[in-house]
Fold:
Amino acid sequence: MSDISAADTAWVMISTAMVMLMTPGLALFYGGMVRRKNILSILAICFATLALISVQWVLIGYSLSFGSDISGFIGGLDWGLMKGVGVEASSYATNLPHIVFSIFQMMFAVITVGIIASAFAERAKFISFLVFALLWTTLVYDPLAHWVWGGGFLGRLGALDFAGGLVVHISSGISALAVSLVIGKRNGFREYTFEPHNLPMTAIGTGLLWFGWFGFNAGSALSANGLAANALLVTNTAASTAALTWLFTGWYMDGKPSILGMLSGAVAGLVAITPAAGYVDVSSAIIIGFIAGLVCYFAVLYRSKSNVDESLDAFAIHCVGGVLGALLTGIFASSIINPAIRGGLISGNITQFTAQFISVVVVLVYAFTVTLIIAKIVDAIFGLRVNEQEEYLGMDITQHKEKAYA
Amino acid sequence: MSDISAADTAWVMISTAMVMLMTPGLALFYGGMVRRKNILSILAICFATLALISVQWVLIGYSLSFGSDISGFIGGLDWGLMKGVGVEASSYATNLPHIVFSIFQMMFAVITVGIIASAFAERAKFISFLVFALLWTTLVYDPLAHWVWGGGFLGRLGALDFAGGLVVHISSGISALAVSLVIGKRNGFREYTFEPHNLPMTAIGTGLLWFGWFGFNAGSALSANGLAANALLVTNTAASTAALTWLFTGWYMDGKPSILGMLSGAVAGLVAITPAAGYVDVSSAIIIGFIAGLVCYFAVLYRSKSNVDESLDAFAIHCVGGVLGALLTGIFASSIINPAIRGGLISGNITQFTAQFISVVVVLVYAFTVTLIIAKIVDAIFGLRVNEQEEYLGMDITQHKEKAYA
Amino acid sequence: MSDISAADTAWVMISTAMVMLMTPGLALFYGGMVRRKNILSILAICFATLALISVQWVLIGYSLSFGSDISGFIGGLDWGLMKGVGVEASSYATNLPHIVFSIFQMMFAVITVGIIASAFAERAKFISFLVFALLWTTLVYDPLAHWVWGGGFLGRLGALDFAGGLVVHISSGISALAVSLVIGKRNGFREYTFEPHNLPMTAIGTGLLWFGWFGFNAGSALSANGLAANALLVTNTAASTAALTWLFTGWYMDGKPSILGMLSGAVAGLVAITPAAGYVDVSSAIIIGFIAGLVCYFAVLYRSKSNVDESLDAFAIHCVGGVLGALLTGIFASSIINPAIRGGLISGNITQFTAQFISVVVVLVYAFTVTLIIAKIVDAIFGLRVNEQEEYLGMDITQHKEKAYA
Amino acid sequence: MYKIEAIIRPEKLQEVKKALEEKGFYGLTVTEVKGRGRQKGIKLQWRAGEYIIDLIEKTKIEIVVREEDVDELTDCICQKASTGKVGDGKIFVMPVKDAVRIRTMERGDAALGNGKI
Amino acid sequence: MYKIEAIIRPEKLQEVKKALEEKGFYGLTVTEVKGRGRQKGIKLQWRAGEYIIDLIEKTKIEIVVREEDVDELTDCICQKASTGKVGDGKIFVMPVKDAVRIRTMERGDAALGNGKI
Amino acid sequence: MYKIEAIIRPEKLQEVKKALEEKGFYGLTVTEVKGRGRQKGIKLQWRAGEYIIDLIEKTKIEIVVREEDVDELTDCICQKASTGKVGDGKIFVMPVKDAVRIRTMERGDAALGNGKI
Ligand SMILES: Nc1ncnc2c1ncn2[C@@H]1O[C@H](COP(=O)(O)OP(=O)(O)O)[C@@H](O)[C@H]1O
Ligand SMILES: Nc1ncnc2c1ncn2[C@@H]1O[C@H](COP(=O)(O)OP(=O)(O)O)[C@@H](O)[C@H]1O
Ligand SMILES: Nc1ncnc2c1ncn2[C@@H]1O[C@H](COP(=O)(O)OP(=O)(O)O)[C@@H](O)[C@H]1O
Structure:
């Protein structure tokens, strides 16, 4: 245990707890936006994700993602059931007990599935979601985590993804789109409006997400050092800039400053800075935040006018924001911030940008295709969707026999 | 201050904050389950617990629990008002400022009383709860903490209780049962249903509890090391397994997957892993979580069909879960995980199991008896319960002259 | 990076996250107290504060507050856009990456503006609040932070302000009063009652504030050591004592124990201990908590009977509590707790008390005057207040075109 | 046709509903209301003042039925909703000129879908 | 018997209630409603579209009284609930055929527990 | 004068409101209610027991109009609120003796502020 740092261990453990809290935070963020009759089902989906992916991760997920590399594509099953994952350090972080690294990573797998969950909002069979989640995390998340972070081919290509722009946000955002295409529009979509039932709940959720994101991004330094501090700073800066950008853009476009817009903007900024957090400085963070706020605003606007009912806009925020972040990392990455890298376009390193671009395309294509297949299969076997009568009565009653509010 | 570790200090301070947050979390967990007219009183009871026990602890509680041992039964008053509890390390944790150890322990005393508070739900006089809480923490919690952790006879017997299966969960769960027997059923019990007024509130509470529990269990390692990391991992694993177990058991039994069931399952798993967290590996955690989810499900089912209105099931979850955890620790404890111990039944060490068994019985008997007496005395002097008219109008208005929602 | 401590870095980073969470916590604390039609606008104001002040801070705020001193009154702009604020330590904390110190301080600037926000409740134009916030943080907060912490004249005078009694609480509380005088009473004030629309929301907020305050006060030690531990302990003790004091005082005066009272008391105690947390022991904390609970209770009572609609009592709690705390620090400060100081009145050091007194007066006068001017100017240019019809319909609809609850 | 408007204790709703169902009266509309009757008010206090709560939560049931069903129904509701204590509530009976079933535009008794039709 | 149905500003409820109480009219039922009158609508926006809010929160008071009390009560309500601005609300008076006190099964005026009885 | 009481699907409210507006009927009062009609109940479960949900969320619209407007309005509502499926709701028409505008104390038809007046 020679090199293990107690301080780093403490930092990554608390970061783990903070990232764990993001899933309940996400549940509230989404929960506030759905109709009153479906709030419990969103919460159920998110909490079930936390439980289910946690178990999958210790059984096989961690090993598939980070186990001994098999031709750059997937990890072996040698660490199944956490065999051999103990208090000694691993090669992934020589300063941390191996367990700490593995459980920190676990929470990333959890939240990623939580993001996709939004595509199931207000119309999915609970059982189908569970089956989908299990398949998706195994067939999409685990490989992607391996490719980028686990010694796989995208990492070797030189793709930079500090805290999960590719692995977490693009993958979940594009998959949410794929799911929404298979599951179809909610009844009444574009016929009558779906009012969010509790925006203060969405605000609480955003608060918890923002808090947890400090663990997400700064924790990804895997050490309580200046790099983590920089990640903390740029994370907060990008979130703030994007929140303001969305707020003012919406104000200009719609005539009024929307709080849901500001909260969405904050999330967009957090998403976009995620891949970049360990590589860019605060000025770049302002630019990244600004672009994310602006582009994601229009992405949501466009989506909401389209015929696609990707109901809670995981695509327009997480995928679009993630793509922006991944590419902008290729532009703004700086070896001053992170001496371990050569820097991005702005430092004259075009290779980095190319690596980012290729990775984005690979992740988009892979996640979209495989998700489409999984969704179709689950649909064929279990039916992704409840019937019209059930949808009308709401998921809470028909899927869970429970009522949110008395 | 030679041996004091800043990293461990940071870890236990943040763990303290996380355990502190569990009491508001518990307030929400319970608060969501009561009727609309009683929500404030549940919150009042939990926040008053935080304030009251915090003060009792610095005045006498810490000293009674951890002060110089008096024949194995109670601590002396030498540390009253925190005299002598300063920045130097204590024998309890040579790596931490004494204050850190004492305030971390404080939060355990707080949450324990918070758990019992549930037995007072929807019918207790606020003043009577306060008097009860003060007596209970002094006469039940402090001695038990001393017996197990403060150098008392159960600790010497070799009882293992990593983060408080005996001291926190069994003691509070069995005491909640005793209180509910004295205070009696709510009016209308088994006549008409009491619908939980806000299940999303219960979900938020569970999220905060889960988060805080990482501090509770992993913080109990008192060090930012591999043992803490293992505690973190097994805690999350047991919670997840138990949540899924309860979810699926309920699904099978009732026909529908209940979110309240899943949340209850998570808590049951967290409770059961509490005494074991520093002694068992992840496979054992899965077994412990599974057993806790299953057994506590049936305990709640049985209780709810019985004639006992232990309204929020602190007994069926905390006491039953705590007993399971304490005994399973005696089975699964492993010296590979924790070299300081000899291991449980599975390592061929029957003594450990016997020690666990004896401790469970001692705690059950002591806590139940003394609680019964305290409750009867408080009832005789102040009256535990409001009158029927007040109960009908609700605690919020009649006890606090306040209304939760306008 | 020789002296930088990873443990201290971890501790101050997590403290930063905790203080960040206080602003959403504050939003909920306040949000629960306003009417249903204005809840979103309170949330909007608080989240916008987080975003806006974060950006102002990295652009100029940090530099104005902590940059190279200009005649004791303000910092220079050398650290604008965080230029030169990197991973090396600064003179403010030789054990921390400079970034960590600066972002920890950022969250103090944020929450301070969040506190004033309450004076805008239920009647302000959103745009006017934004302009006000930007001016205020630049013209009031940044100078004050410089005077006390950034090498300015109050710090040199010897004023003790551990975590921001002067800089945060007095300044925001007195400014809230100034704003409320300019913006005027809500329509219907003292004609009909304004019922708080969701007290459980206020309770959740208090829980998050209490949690975050551990980072606020114990984090202000800037090190994971005994001083931080002491700050943690006295913070919790003062909060608890004040909560109980307010609870019982209100009980005696009004006939019933109010939960809103208890929560307000907790905040009052937290405020009062803030300047003292690194200088006093636990017995003094009990006295400080008691005085704060009692005096702030009567301050609120008096204010609510006055003709001033300082709607959410930032003045009566933050300013009054802050003044108490600052003065009591001058009385109870002890060199046993903090060897770096000479102690207060009780240690026979009258100079300390004088320094505290002068600082209080200076901050009161400066903040009140400048705030009054800013508020008048913003009022003249943008109009601080919506028209009567808009106020009647509520801020949520008229300022944000959004509805909180469907 | 008459509308029966019964203001009852919320906890009696299930029982009343069930009794109506057993008599064949499915159609009804329920509203959460607050009511004041014989009870004295309670003063409430909060930081910025005080107010009086004399309104207790009640449930209003509205059932439109044919004239000949009115007595049977009011009796049935009285029986199920009564506890014998102040606060049991009131029933009001009001004339209804016409009823329309939106789906089919049927009118009159045929639209009620209640009672022995 | 008549039912007086008054739709008023929520903030006027306390005052109206108190005035009724002073006249001896305790029994009443209160419902939270939303209403549209002379005001123009307001457009609301959220991420997935827009909707129009022209419904303002109002409070509905229902009081069943004997015929001879109707005028006194409507006057009393008008006086207390009025601010002179658009949005003050409306009062509607509707015939009631019968009233029943659930607890005692008393019928007719005796069941009202309102007014000079 | 008559009161039209329409119990409709909540998601149809916007459409109905708009149609009424276009016909010149601004004044209306909306209440959130729950209703039971032809649907079968659903059993709900929680930790301490079970209960039956047969009440589906509906929206009640109340409009007081002159006698001559009743038919036009009921037709209009039926048309806009109908989906052709069970649960579309009901309309009830009830006599109203008088209306008062609180602000001006105007009475009768003039107080309605609805229809062609
Ligand atoms: N005259 C009335 N008009 C309208 N509603 C009434 C009237 N009298 C009573 N109510 C309603 O009936 C409820 C029960 O009345 P209460 O007087 O407590 O019942 P009881 O007559 O059985 O004692 C009240 O809460 C109120 O909602
Ligand atoms: N014809 C009507 N039918 C039913 N409710 C009405 C009618 N006209 C008005 N209301 C109710 O009365 C409230 C106040 O109406 P409004 O026209 O604003 O008042 P005023 O006539 O004093 O200006 C409305 O919000 C609505 O709830
Ligand atoms: N007899 C009745 N009295 C009062 N309300 C009724 C009655 N019948 C139906 N309703 C209301 O109308 C709503 C729709 O009724 P439903 O029977 O589902 O419509 P439909 O007749 O078109 O199938 C119900 O939810 C209930 O609120």
The mean pLDDT of chain C is 97.
